[in-house]
Amino acid sequence: LLGSQCMAAVKIAVDIVNENGGVQGRQVELVKADAPDPTAATTEAGRLVDQQGVQVIFGSLASGNALAIAGVTEKSGVSLVESGGIADALTDSGFQHVFRILDKGGLRGAAGASYVGEFIAPKLGIDPKDLKIAIIHEESSYGTSVADGAEAKIKEMGMNLVARESYNTSITDMSSLVLKLKEKKPDVLLSVNYINDAILLVDTLKQYDAMPKVFMGCGAGTTDPNFASTIGSDSDGFFCTDMPTNLPLDVFTDEGMRKTVSDFRDRFKKEFPDMKNVSIAAEAAFAGCYTFLHDI
Fold first, then answer.
1. pTM for the model
2. 60 upstream amide cis, omega within 30 of 0
3. Which of 165, 204, 226, 264 has its CA at a distance of 20 to 30 angstroms from the CA of residue 179?
4. Tens of pLDDT, residues 140-161
């Protein structure tokens, strides 16, 4: 679903650019590719470069896919404009043709941990050094990067990391993981997930009466609109770190940009009428594509 939304957002960006004269007077041709996993991402990126002759690839939602595509674009000299994959390795590996418009995973995890220590601990009336924190994350480059950043910040701030657990996103039963966490009695749980495992985690925490005082989601699953709509009021009071999204139009001081953002949102909502707001992933995909074509 998010992949379709991101594809639609990129197409809207290309349409807006083409309607306003294209890039240096040339119309932009959009060639689509679908890659559900890193293996397919490598194959499709190779096809786009070798057979379609693309000069820029916009992608790719998931960090694993982004890293796979970067391997292809680095060899060919094609640019990868990444608006979804946040794994640290994407910008820490020396790639010369990768442009990322969002935060690194380690920074996102560190931001969540820092907020816990600076703002949540005082609200709980607990000294940060006495605050018990647990981390649970999916095990891909995405989840690991975010969790590594969170763990490093927790240790830097002298807080107490009582557990760190990881899992594969294909998981269907989190009972053993949740029981391990419950045994450690964390005050705060930092969670890094995609949508399905985020929902499964919350359901399992409820099942075993293991919900901590504070649940801090670090992007993706917990900031997906479907998360709150699925678990309902159980998400009330959750904290999340992610990119800013659906900002009020009046924060855009440039009139042209304000009109462009408004135009994008109107077009997107016509294509996805059941959505009240544009998803974070789609806004990032539009921003990456439009900025690159219009300004770079």
1. 0.90
2. yes
3. 226
4. 999 999 999 999 999 999 999 9
